[in-house]
Design a protein that fits this description.
The chain has two domains: 132 residues, Endonuclease III, domain 1; 71 residues, Helix-hairpin-Helix base-excision DNA repair enzymes (C-terminal) (Endonuclease Iii, domain 2, Orthogonal Bundle). It is mainly α. The model has no long low-confidence stretch (mean pLDDT 95). Helices cover 49% and strands 0% of the residues. The protein binds iron/sulfur cluster (SF4). The site of iron/sulfur cluster has 15 residues, from helix 10.
């Protein structure tokens, strides 16, 4: 996985928005701000917010963003249509994230992951942003390592994001109980793959979304069918 060439990641399905989010060289803060916005709405809707704001501001430079006052951000997030379900709260998080990037990282968000840090350090740095919890912090570190191929010293503190697909698939595969809690799934992933628990995230999610649906799983098409104890039950 780490040797494979980096490919452009489709975060939103909107080419210009994805280009901004993939541009870790000139706009690394776009990726960070999208992570901060990713809560309580669909991911695609959250990840497009930096691009929607860039359209209104006429660019997405840190200089332009740091010049915005709290009321400016709230206006950008709410007019003409709300960009998030919780405009006021997320406007505050957006502005405070911009300030943190400016003050702690000299305006260069790439310093969050520069110099081959330990995974725990990267997760910790994301957790310092207002509104970011362990799930999003781990997801951000996972995308950086897995998709952007950013070098980390190790990956042991990048946890699985135990969403509904992941929990269902790990349960049906017999890797944890079918009623496992989020915390149980996170620790089971640590037990299964201690050096990089989060690596189990994407395949589990993909299997869940593609074949292992909540109702009528398509076991005959799933590449885990020969190993899965639940597959025979669905024949
Ligand atoms: S074989 Fe069937 S039950 Fe098992 S993971 Fe695949 S789709 Fe799910």
């Amino acid at each position: 996985m780490f040797r494979a060439p980096k490919q452009s990641i489709e975060f939103t399905g909107v080419p210009d928005a994805d280009a901004l989010l993939n541009d870790l060289t000139a706009h690394p803060h776009a990726f960070v701000l999208a992570c901060v916005m990713d809560r309580q709405i669909k991911a695609e809707k959250a990840w497009i917010i930096p691009y929607r704001i860039s359209e209104k501001v006429g660019g997405f430079s840190m200089d332009a963003l740091t010049a915005l006052r709290e009321s400016d951000v709230e206006l950008l997030m709410s007019q003409p249509e709300p960009l998030h379900r919780f405009v006021k709260k997320m406007s505050n998080y957006f502005r405070s994230a911009v300030q943190r990037i400016a003050e702690e990282y000299g305006g260069d968000a790439a310093r969050i992951w520069a110099d081959k840090p330990a995974s725990a350090e990267v997760v910790y740095r994301f957790l310092r942003f207002d509104g970011v919890g362990p799930k999003i912090a781990s997801m951000a570190a996972n995308i950086l390592a897995r998709d952007f191929k950013i070098a980390f010293a190790e990956h042991s503190c990048i946890d699985i994001s135990a969403d509904t697909h992941v929990r269902r698939v790990l349960g049906r595969l017999g890797l944890c109980s079918t009623d496992a809690t989020v915390e149980q799934v996170i620790y089971k992933a640590k037990a299964l793959h201690p050096t990089f628990p989060g690596i189990l995230d994407f395949p589990s999610w993909e299997i869940g979304r593609t074949w292992c649906k909540a109702r009528a799983p398509e076991c005959d098409k799933c590449y885990m069918r020969l190993l899965c104890p639940t597959a025979s039950l669905n024949k």
